[in-house]
Amino acid sequence: MLRELLSGNSDIDPAQLAKAAGLPNDPAMMAQLMSQLQSAMQHQGDGVDWKIASEQAKAIASSETVATTPAERAQLDQAFVIAALWLSEATVVSELTVNPRLMSRSEWVNATMPVWTQLAEPVALSIADALTDVLKQQAPEEMSGMIEGASRIMRNVGGTLFAMQLGQVVGQLSGEVVSGGDIGIPLLDASGGVDLQAAILPQNIAAFGDGLDIETDQVQLYLAVRELAHARLFRHAKWLRLGLMTSITEFAQGVRVDTGKLEELAATFDPSNPEELREAMVSGALIPPKSDAQRAALDRLETMLALVEGWVDVVTAQATTRLPKSAAIAETVRRRRAAGGPAESAFSTLVGLELRPRRLREAAAMWQRVTDEVGAERRDALWSHPDVLPTSADIDDPGALVARLLGGTPEPDDVDQAIADLLNDTTDDRPHENTDGSADEPKA
User: Domain locations in the chain?
Assistant: First the structure.
C-alpha cells in the first residue's frame, strides 16, 4: 500500500489502510486519513505532527457530547466543596490553590494531549527509525543519494499514521475517564499559563452511575473526593510528577522495533489481508523483549503508581465514611480500574505500557496499616521526599516500615554507619598523636 501511495496511485482503498492501522472504517475519517498522508508526503520537516492527533481526538470527543445543565453544574460544584471539607479530616496534605474544573470531553482532550504526546513520541520515533532503516538496508548502493528523500517521506507517513492512532485512543479515552486523575498518572497540563489541578467530566460521571442503583449525589461526592485526593497529593509532593514521567519516558525511549521481523512481514504481506499486519502489531511480535533498563524503569513506575493509587484509596475511604454506599462505589471503582477500558487497552498496545498498577491492593493495605499504627500526619510525611517514600519491600512487609516509623529515627545507610563506627571507636588500636606531633605505634 505504501508503494502504491508513494508512486502516486490514487486508487488505493483507504478502508484497507485504515484497517491495518487499527482505525475505524468511517468515510469521513478515511478522507481525512488520505488527506493527511498526502500532506505528510509533501511535508519538508521531520518528526511527528501531533496536531493530527489532537484534531482526531477532539473530533471523536465532540461526536457524542451531552450538555450539562446549570443545575447539574451547581450540584457538582457543591460536591467539590463538601469533598474538600471531608478530605481535610482524613489527610494533612494541604488544599488546592485553584478551584476544580468541570470539563467537557473536548476540553479534557485539549488539557491532556501534551502529556499523551510526551508519552508516545519516543515510540513514534522508534517506529519511524525502523521504517527508514529497512529502506536503507534494502536499497541498492547506487540509489543511496535518493534514499534520503524517501526516508523523510517514510518517516512522515509513519508518524502521521501513528499520530492518528494516538488521536483515536485519546478520543476514546475522553468518553471513559471521569476525572483528571482517573488514569493514575497526572495528565492535566498547565499549558498556556492555566493552572489545572483537579477536574471532573460531568457527562462521564453520569454514565459511571448508570445501573448502580446508587443516588447520584453520593456518586458525585465519592468521585469528587477521589479526584481532590489525587490532585492534592501531586501538588504536595512536587517531585512526584517528575518521578513518574521520568520512569515512563525511560521505558518508552527503550522501545525498539525488530527490523528483522519487520522485513519478514513485508516479504510475505498480502495487501488484500491487512488484518495480518494489525495482528502483528497487536501481538507485539515486532517489539523485542524488554531490556534490563526498561524492566527497572517499569518496576519503579509500577511501585510508584501502586503507592499513589493505594494512598488515594485509603484516604478516600476514610473521608467518605458519611456516605452510606461508599463501599459499593469503591468496589465499582476497583473493578473498573482492574478491568480497564477499551481505549486504555489500545494505549497499552500502541505504546507498550500498562498504566494500571498490579500491586494496588497490597499498597492500599500497607497505607492502611501505617495509618492505623502511626496516624495520618506521619503517614503523609512519607511523601515529603523520594528518599523516605515506601519501597516495594515496604509493600511486601508493612511491619518493617511501621517499626522504622515508631523507632523515631531512620536506619543509617552504609556511609552513615561507617562514619558512626569511626567516631565511636574507643579502642587503643589506632595511632595516637603525641604533643611533639609524632604518633605512637599501634599496640600489638
Answer: 43-254+291-351, 366-423
